[in-house]
């Protein structure tokens, strides 16, 4: 059986590193993005230049119709997916909860939580012969991100619970659901929080004394996705330098 994977938010950061790594392992990859077509096409070109197979598909994964369309495009161009990496996520400028609007909170929850539920739903429908799902959560679900973005941290707490519940719901169907929780990883996400050099500020608090590389997260995602972890479900790997 060919392995066909969707990586949501595959145009940049952890998602891009994961898409490239999985392609090297033989997966046909759908690189999803919301707006950055140029970066998504670069990921596809890089995969193709290394002899792999990939397509880029625009979809806002927080919108139900976009998700349905995304999976239909994959069906028609790559085939029914066998693996899913739920990775697309956002964080918004650092602030205390007392300053947060309902609009902001809802945007974070819709993008980081509703999207994972919708993509799991569509993936499961296609995984008649079993499958594997990896959710990208965050160390923030354990640490809470006080005075930075509790909304983001809480959205990742929801992903941890989704992973536990769905892994149990699907175990008898031979669909495994696992989770990675990255810590401080060098991507442009920190700039979205208003502090591009955030890792530099906090790195002495990290036991390994450095931020992580997107490729180091991709390795753990690939392990949980693959048959190398065939007896593992409902499990978390903290890729957070010991914190
Ligand atoms: P990033 O560099 O900011 O990239 C975000 C990706 O998500 C981009 O590909 C973006 O697409 C896509 N995206 C955003 N909203 C989307 C939507 N509604 N629909 C479809 N795609 C969407 O982020 P990252 O740092 O790699 O983070 C990836 C995941 O790891 C996130 O879930 C994040 O919470 C988690 N994480 C990151 C860190 C870290 O330190 N970086 C730590 C813990 C957890 P465009 O390119 O089109 O904008």
CATH architecture field: 3-Layer(aba) Sandwich
Overall number of structural domains:
1
Structure classification: alpha/beta
Please list the strands of the largest sheet in the order they lie side by side.
3-2-1-4-5-6-7
What sequence of helices (H) and strands (E) makes up the elements?
EHEHEHEHEHHEHHHE
Rg: 17 Å
Main sheet characteristics:
7 strands, parallel
Folded structure, characterized:
- The chain is α/β, with parallel strands linked by helices.
- The chain has one domain (4-239): Rossmann fold, CATH 3.40.50.
- 45% of the residues lie in helices and 15% in strands.
- It is built from nine helices and seven strands, in the order βαβαβαβαβααβαααβ.
- Helix 1 (13-24) runs parallel beside helix 2, helix 1 packs across helix 9 (214-225) and helix 3 runs parallel beside helix 4 (102-126).
- The protein starts with a strand and ends with a strand.
- The protein binds NADP nicotinamide-adenine-dinucleotide phosphate.
Write the layout of secondary structure elements.
Layout: E1 4-7, H1 13-24, E2 28-33, H2 37-49, E3 54-58, H3 64-77, E4 83-86, H4 102-126, E5 131-136, H5 140-143, H6 150-170, E6 175-182, H7 189-192, H8 198-202, H9 214-225, E7 236-239
Parallel strand pairs: 1-2, 1-4, 2-3, 4-5, 5-6, 6-7
Helix pairs in contact: 1-2, 1-9, 3-4, 4-6
NADP nicotinamide-adenine-dinucleotide phosphate (NAP) is lined by residues 8-9, 11-15, 32-36, 39, 60-62, 87-90, 111, 136, 138, 182, 184-185, 187-189.
């Amino acid at each position: 059986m060919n392995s066909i994977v969707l990586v949501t938010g595959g145009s940049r950061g952890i998602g891009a590193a994961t898409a490239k790594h999985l392609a090297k392992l033989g997966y046909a990859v759908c690189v999803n993005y919301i707006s950055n077509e140029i970066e998504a096409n670069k990921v596809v070109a890089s995969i193709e230049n290394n002899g792999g197979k990939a397509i880029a598909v625009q979809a806002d994964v927080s919108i139900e119709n976009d998700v349905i369309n995304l999976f239909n495009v994959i069906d028609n161009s790559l085939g029914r997916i066998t693996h899913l990496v739920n990775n697309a996520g956002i964080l918004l400028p650092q602030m205390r909860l007392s300053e947060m609007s309902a609009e902001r909170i809802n945007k974070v929850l819709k993008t980081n939580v509703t999207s994972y539920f919708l993509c799991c739903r569509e993936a499961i429908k296609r995984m008649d012969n079993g499958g594997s799902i990896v959710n990208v959560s965050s160390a923030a679900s354990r640490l809470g991100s006080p005075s930075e973005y509790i909304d983001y941290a809480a959205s990742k707490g929801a992903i941890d619970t989704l992973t536990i519940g769905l892994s149990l719901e699907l175990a008898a169907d031979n669909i495994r659901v696992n989770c990675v929780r990255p810590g401080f990883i060098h991507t442009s996400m920190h700039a979205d929080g208003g502090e591009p050099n955030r890792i530099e500020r906090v790195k002495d608090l990290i036991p390994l004394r450095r931020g992580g590389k997107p490729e180091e997260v991709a390795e753990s995602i690939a392990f949980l996705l693959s048959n190398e972890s065939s007896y593992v479900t409902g499990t978390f790997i903290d890729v957070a330098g010991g914190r």
